[in-house]
Amino acid sequence: MSTDPDSAPVEPPEPTELQLAAAADTFALLASPARLHLVSLMSSGRSDVGALAAKVGLSLPTTSQHLSKLRLAGIVSAHREGRHSIYTVDDPHVISLVEQIFEHIAPDGTLAPDPPATSPTKESRA
User: Fold this and answer.
1) For residue 76, what are the CA distances in angstroms to 53, 88, 111?
2) What is the share, in percent, of the chain residues with pLDDT greater than 70?
3) Which of 68, 85, 98, 110 is spaced 20 to 30 A from 10 at the CA atom?
4) The whole model's pTM is what?
5) What are the beta bridge partners of residue 84?
6) CA 17 to chain CA centroid, nearest Å
């Protein structure tokens, strides 16, 4: 077996202090159930503040405050369509993060079981 150092797996670099701080700030924003719910809703499509408030069960001012924090952090974006502000999550990393956490948490709030490991079938080995 070869011990070529060039074929060894490359360790990812450790995160910098700035990356750690930014990641912690992002997780802190998403630690609010209301903001996480808003991001989840916007990850699957565009919405205005009224529709988001109704779905999350918050008042318009409270929803607007949450959206403002998320927008200032760069997690969501907004643009005007007439008299309405339309909000969306454009960053595929944020969308993936939110999708993955809800795949990991069962509807009853417990950790979802890991999917079964796929192993080659007898036919694929033949």
Assistant:
1) 15, 6, 27
2) 87
3) 98
4) 0.77
5) 81
6) 22
* C-alpha pair distances (Å), 66 with each of 15, 35, 57, 122: 28, 6, 13, 53
Q: pLDDT of 6-51, one tens digit each? A: 677 889 899 999 999 999 999 999 999 999 999 999 998 999 999 9
Residue type, 65: Q
Structure-token pair, residue 107: 């509807």
Backbone angles phi, psi at 25, to 5 degrees: -65, -40
By the 10 Å C-beta count (0-12 exposed, 13-18 middle, 19+ buried), 73 is classed as middle
Name beta bridge partners: 80: 85
